[in-house]
Sequence to fold (165 residues):
Amino acid sequence: MMAGVDPAFLALYEREFRPVYRTVLLLCRNAHLAEEATQEAFVRALERWKRLRDQPWAGGWVTTTAMNLARRAVRRRAEPEAAAAADTPDASDAEAALDLWRSVARLPLRQQQALVLHYRLGLSTAEAATVMRCAEGTVRGYLTRARETLRDRLLEEPDGTRPAR
Fold:
């Protein structure tokens, strides 16, 4: 145990580190970056612990902070990690997953957050709303717009046209 650290913070860290890390990993697809962003988010939470300590949304604050840190770091990187996925046994599935995550990465931040929290972490829209600190209807709106955008982007032909329905 770390001397001088509030046991409530340590409990938050123990309870939330893995879920925060997994969420960030799903967003950025880079284990090293996800770990750095998660650790930095907890450092920032510790710096603000007097304000966060009794808040029911402290775990959501850490998650959002880590996701924002990872997004900024990804923007600074020039090359995607597509080369690593091309070496997998089923490259077509890996490429389709990469296409999806590239499309997700181009969505507005709040839509990305809603998608990851709801579909990848399995949170209900009410739980996602708590984490995102917004209304449940707002989360449903983010999810609807994100699904529509992803559908349109993923159905586009390489020349930018849409197939006939």
Residues 78-89 have pLDDT under 50 and may be disordered. The longest helix spans residues 7-28. The CA atoms of residues 22 and 144 lie 23 Å apart. DSSP finds nine helices and no strands in the chain.
